[in-house]
Amino acid sequence: MTTFETAASVAGAAAKAPAEVAKAPAEVAKAPAEVAMPAHRRPAHTIVALHGALDASAAPALREQLIGVLRHCGRLLVLDLSEVPSGDETGLAVLVGTLHRAAALGVTVRLDAPGRQLAELLHITGLDRVFHTPLTPPARIEPAA
């Protein structure tokens, strides 16, 4: 089991729960879950690197953390999926819910570097056309053996 982490601004984290502000220099607040999620905020965008399986066990905590990130991100939220080995329909539902919440806030969500299994799942479900996702062209996606 991995931990679920998100970087937060010192002021924002301290205002919500001073005891939860991590002592590490990366200013990381922790919550229990299955996916690690460090966030790197820039003025116009936020990059969130997900680590771990994007599945039913990780979905509740991931949903809560992504909602929190949306409150403080710029006009673009980039979800780096390069360290996500797998996902299922529950994980995709969290991504779709995040997309809808982001759209209501005027935020664009982009999925970057999904692995083979996740890229195939996004393609099969048609979500590769919904998200701003630089995927391998469908003709080059090979089914998992």
Automatic annotation (TrEMBL):
Gene3D superfamilies named in the record: STAS domain
| Pfam hit, one | STAS
Q: Which CDD domains match?
A: STAS_anti-anti-sigma_factors
Name all STAS domain ranges: 35-145
Q: Which family does it belong to?
A: Belongs to the anti-sigma-factor antagonist family.
Q: What is this protein called?
A: Anti-sigma factor antagonist
Q: Which organism is it from?
A: Actinomadura napierensis
Lineage of the source organism? Bacteria, Bacillati, Actinomycetota, Actinomycetes, Streptosporangiales
